[in-house]
Design brief:
The complex is a heterodimer of chains A (427) and B (222).
Chain A (H helix, E strand, L loop, with lengths): L6 H21 L3 H4 L55 E2 L20 E2 L12 E6 L5 E4 H6 L3 E8 L16 H5 L2 E10 H8 L7 E6 L6 E5 H7 L1 E6 L2 E2 L9 E3 L12 E7 L14 E2 L5 E2 L8 E6 L10 E10 L5 E7 L7 E2 L1 E3 L8 E9 L4 E9 L8 H8 L12 E4 L5 E6 L1
Parallel strand pairs in A: 3-12
Antiparallel strand pairs in A: 1-2, 3-4, 5-6, 6-9, 7-8, 7-12, 9-10, 9-11, 13-14, 15-16, 16-20, 17-18, 17-21, 19-20, 21-22, 22-23
Chain B lengths: L2 H21 L15 H7 L14 E3 H11 L1 H4 L27 H4 L3 H11 L10 H14 L8 E3 L14 E2 L24 E4 L20
Antiparallel strand pairs in B: 1-2
Helix pairs in contact in B: 3-7, 6-7
Classes of the chains: A alpha+beta (427), B mainly alpha (222).
Chain lengths: 427, 222
């Protein structure tokens, strides 16, 4: 995101930088020379030559693994402490308000643990493939790296993203209403390649996928989906998968709810019916108003959100802005995104930013001249199946308010005349 | 799902499946990577249990044995009678599945008793998962079922009795995804009457949002 998007962070960080610059100038007794206009504290702006232009920076390998500028220290994963009993079984949120492109930085990708983040030794990690197969196999990480490899860009979203907002607008933050999502380039071996190697018996229909974490996280997935486009992933954004994302090996189930993308995966058992694990019965099922529950609702349906303006990124005065956001669908590519500034009365077609990839975050932008009056900002995604993102009222009329999962409703941001932005819901 | 969408998805799926194996059209074992796991290796990791009882190990456990184990191992988080402590899960009670505050619990929500064994065995107790013997897991499973008034105090759980337990909400689930269940349109002009656009709720002033700048917020209640 450009200047608009980073204004609050950049301004704060800038002040700190100036203070430090001022102190260093004072210590070297160069104030007179470097800041000819002593009354003006803006010693890094023209005509002054800033301190970083008059001194050597650290050399190569002073940081053997790079980290973001310390001016970006507020751009971090954050959690909602009261949501869960312990941080070991909890979630953190991606700071989408600061994400500039479709790839989520690996260090900012949201976390979801069911029993903490295990430290898995890759030399001892094994993937067992067994059950209704011709040849059960035990693979080392070295074996898995030897198979033909592919890279794909896909999002992963927890279906509980927005789960706090079913009843009413609750959290005044893009990070907390939409941050259980990330998008990365994933590299690994196609599950179909591995399944072809072991030979799946014709009676095989379902696969239990299980993690090596302390939850022994387990889900049942139809064989067809695994053969279609799923990957056993060891690479993320050009380096090894991060521990938070399942190092050394995770399952990627493109477009389906995050929970089935089992991390630290160690076992694939082929069977002829689902196992009905706790995570697909007691959890990750959706209570409907009549008390019945929906299960196996895996795909993420089309969704979008405006990332600027948003509560964390307010607007500073009337004038021309670029409304920005992300759209995504677990059923394929995003076909179009429309933006409304009047609460859904009239809409304008936004531009999609390349690349527009299936089951990946897609950028959209719309130039907008703000007249300084209150506005209600919304975005509405349409995917290549023709599905149109619903309003929260439409979702509630079908699913009530107890479903927790799969809230893909249109987000409304209330922009006030002072430029501040609030999470609201419309009737 | 409209019929053309369903057809399109089916067609896409068929094409992909047809194309997938074709790209990997090697006989099984073509690469020769990996080793054949021993039966002991397979047995050691095969902990998944199905509703029909597949995967349940030998062993047994009674409600009374389960009571004793539960009070020592489980009650600190789940409460003496499964009522839960703090934000740790409540396991039993008079919960409803409808209304403003539904309370899905083992007794009123879980469709299969076998899932209880599977989950306790693989993930409990929370700080030391997969540390109980099959007899202990059977016993705790029996106790939790009894807390929920599903089985009598004389119940003994084993690989034969557990799949026979009929959970009250066994038929409370729809396992076929009914979406798309909303039918919004991509209307562009005069889509709603201006007078009807009303803010019905706002997060402003609710005090629920953790800080979004500075260090992590520790001030909100856990």
């Amino acid at each position: 995101m450009g200047v608009d998007g980073q204004t609050p962070v950049a301004r704060t960080a800038g002040r700190r930088g100036l203070l430090r610059g001022g102190l260093r100038l004072g210590a070297s007794a160069l104030i007179g020379a470097a800041a000819p206009r002593a009354a003006n504290a803006d010693t890094a702006s023209p005509p002054a030559d800033p301190i970083w232009s008059q001194s050597l920076g650290p050399g190569v390998v002073s940081r053997v693994y790079g980290v973001p500028s310390h001016f970006e220290k507020d751009v971090i994963r954050r959690n909602v402490p009261f949501l869960t009993a312990t941080p070991e079984s909890s979630v953190s949120f991606t700071p989408l308000q600061s994400q500039t492109g479709i790839i989520t930085a690996s260090g900012l990708f949201f976390e979801r643990y069911h029993a903490g983040r295990p430290t898995v030794d890759p030399s001892q990690h094994r993937l067992m493939v067994h059950g209704m197969v011709d040849q059960p196999r035990l693979f080392t990480m070295q074996d898995l790296h030897r198979f033909p490899s592919v890279s794909r860009i896909h999002f992963i979203e927890c279906p509980a993203n927005g789960g706090m907002e079913w009843r009413a607008a609750q959290l005044n933050s893009l990070q907390f209403t939409h941050g259980m999502i990330g998008c990365a380039e994933w590299t690994g071996v196609k599950v179909s390649t591995v399944f072809n190697e072991v030979g799946i018996k014709s009676t095989g229909k379902w696969v239990l996928v299980e993690g090596a974490d302390a939850a022994h996280m387990a889900r049942s997935i139809p064989l067809e989906k695994l053969l279609d486009d799923c990957l056993l992933v060891y690479g993320q954004n050009g380096e090894a998968l991060r521990p938070e994302q399942g190092y050394p090996l995770r399952l990627l189930v493109p477009g389906w709810q995050g929970n089935v993308n089992v991390k630290w995966i160690r076992r694939l058992q082929i069977g002829d019916q689902p196992w009905f694990t706790r995570e697909e019965t007691a959890k990750y099922t959706e209570l409907m108003p009549d008390g019945k529950a929906r299960g196996f609702t895996w795909p993420i349906y089309a969704k979008s959100v405006i990332t600027f303006p948003c509560p964390e990124m307010p607007v500073h005065g009337a004038g021309i802005y670029e409304i920005r956001g992300f759209a995504w669908s677990g059923l394929g590519r995003i076909r179009q995104v429309d933006v409304s500034v009047d609460g859904g009365i009239n809409w304008s077609r936004a531009a999609l930013g390349d690349p527009v990839l299936p089951k990946a975050l897609t950028r959209f932008t719309l130039p907008w001249r703000w007249d300084g009056k209150p506005a209600l900002l919304q975005s509405r995604a349409v995917d290549e199946t023709g599905f149109v993102q619903p309003t929260i009222a439409q979702l509630r009329s079908v699913r009530g308010t107890n479903a927790i999962y799969n809230n893909n409703s249109i987000q409304t941001w209330q922009l006030k005349a002072d430029g501040s932005v609030y999470d609201v819901e419309l009737g | 799902m409209s019929s053309w969408v369903r057809k399109a998805i089916l067609a896409a799926a068929c094409l992909t499946i047809a194309a997938g194996p074709a790209a990997d059209r090697h006989p099984a074992g073509y690469y020769g990577y990996g080793t054949t796991p021993t039966q002991a290796q397979i047995d050691g990791w095969s902990i998944a249990v199905r509703p029909d009882g597949q995967g349940l190990p030998p062993g047994h456990g009674s409600v009374s044995d389960g009571d004793e184990i539960f009070q020592g191992v489980c009650a600190a988080c789940h409460g003496t009678f499964g009522e839960g402590t703090g934000r740790y899960p409540k396991l039993a009670g008079e919960g409803s599945l409808t209304g403003d505050r539904p309370e899905p619990l083992v007794g009123n929500y879980w469709p299969y008793a076998t899932t209880l064994f599977d989950y306790i065995n693989r993930a409990m107790p929370f700080p030391a998962p997969h540390s109980m013997t099959p007899d202990q897991v059977y016993a705790v499973t029996a106790y939790v079922l009894n807390l929920n008034n599903i089985v009598p105090g004389s119940f003994v759980a084993d690989r034969h009795t557990l799949p026979q337990v009929k959970m009250p909400n066994r038929n409370g689930f729809i396992w076929t995804d009914p979406r798309p269940d909303t039918h919004n349109t991509a209307c562009m002009r005069n889509c709603v009457l201006p007078g009807t656009v009303k803010i019905t709720s706002t997060a402003e002033g609710k005090g629920l949002t953790p800080r979004t700048t500075g260090p992590l917020d520790k001030a909100l209640p856990q």
